[in-house]
């Protein structure tokens, strides 16, 4: 059983812990991503999304702060707590990831509803450690339309300002959940390579959350990354889904030139049904073993770790170049 280091660019453990405060990050079986399972799956880097569940009603900044607080108090290593994750903020830290056996966390924002249209709140999120922002979840907000919004509009004027501010301060952008129109508008505006943190190939499984071939090509051309996701209905339209059903998505993305642009974006803790034998983050070794039956070791290592690390190495902000901002 191979136990290589894995980088996973999307999970919803924080929102699950927000809704169920009794869930312990150390070992709660209700969490697909917990510390015990991260060790089991040898997760070197886990992106933790700040997602505001619909039951909260209209997104507020206090909801964003609530999940940041959960991360600080219950997930991150502190002086008082020696078990948990280190937090990745700066490019310079990437060399440290290889020198510790403790996992690292990367904070992301899934939908900007909770910023309440206030761009200063974006800067506060950056100062508090958020490094990747997706403009929408599935529906419209003040910045853009999500994929389930029937009108399929793109970015609002305020959304365009948001993208420009992200470019300015070093916040990376995520197009998973964005409409096609919004995708292309963001692609034109973004000065940095962007990611689709948890999306598969639309040509293989025509779900609205998956990427069309021209979108995949655009991400590749800009040296962005695509996180292969384990949401069963993004993998196959019907029937039980097994690990092998991910292979056609991998093949399609690679056929478009994406061998070095593919990474992982499980969406664990955001789903209630699972790919068979891939039910939590501790089962990544099963995925690795399946992939090694079909692909060279160096390619699989890239998908699990190398491609994500090279993206961050090129695009995370540098601490010593930290900009003085606030004049947006």
From TrEMBL:
<dbReference type="InterPro" id="IPR032466">
    <property type="entry name" value="Metal_Hydrolase"/>
</dbReference>
<dbReference type="Pfam" id="PF01244">
    <property type="entry name" value="Peptidase_M19"/>
</dbReference>
<protein>
    <submittedName>
        <fullName>Membrane dipeptidase</fullName>
    </submittedName>
</protein>
<dbReference type="InterPro" id="IPR008257">
    <property type="entry name" value="Pept_M19"/>
</dbReference>
């Amino acid at each position: 059983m191979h136990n290589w280091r894995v980088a996973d660019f999307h999970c919803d453990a924080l929102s699950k812990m927000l809704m169920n405060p009794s869930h312990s990050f150390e070992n709660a079986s209700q969490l697909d991503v917990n510390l015990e399972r991260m060790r089991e799956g040898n997760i070197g880097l886990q992106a933790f999304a700040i997602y505001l569940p619909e039951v909260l009603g209209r997104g507020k900044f206090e909801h964003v702060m609530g999940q940041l607080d959960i991360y600080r108090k219950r997930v991150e290593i502190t002086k008082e707590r020696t078990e948990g994750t280190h937090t990745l903020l700066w490019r310079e830290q990437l060399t440290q990831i290889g020198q510790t056996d403790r996992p690292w966390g990367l904070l992301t924002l899934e939908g900007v509803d909770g910023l309440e249209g206030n761009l200063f709140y974006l800067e506060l999120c950056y100062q508090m450690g958020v490094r990747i922002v997706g403009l929408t979840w599935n529906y419209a907000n003040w910045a853009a339309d999500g994929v389930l919004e029937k009108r399929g509009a793109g970015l609002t004027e305020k959304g365009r300002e948001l993208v420009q501010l992200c470019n300015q301060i070093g916040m990376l952008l995520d197009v998973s959940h964005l409409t096609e129109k919004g995708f292309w508008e963001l692609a034109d505006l973004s000065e940095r390579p962007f990611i689709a943190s948890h999306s598969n190939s639309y040509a293989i499984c025509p779900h609205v959350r998956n990427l069309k071939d021209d979108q995949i090509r655009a991400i590749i051309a800009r040296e962005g990354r695509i996180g292969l996701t384990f949401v069963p209905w993004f993998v196959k339209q019907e029937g039980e889904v097994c690990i092998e059903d991910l292979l056609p998505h991998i093949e399609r993305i690679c056929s478009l030139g994406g061998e070095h642009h593919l990474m992982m974006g499980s969406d664990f803790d955001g789903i209630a049904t699972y790919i068979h034998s891939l039910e939590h983050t501790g089962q990544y070794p099963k995925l690795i073993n399946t992939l090694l039956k079909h692909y060279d070791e160096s390619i699989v290592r890239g998908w699990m770790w190398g491609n994500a690390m090279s993206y961050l190495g090129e695009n995370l902000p540098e601490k010593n170049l930290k900009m003085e901002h606030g004049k947006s």
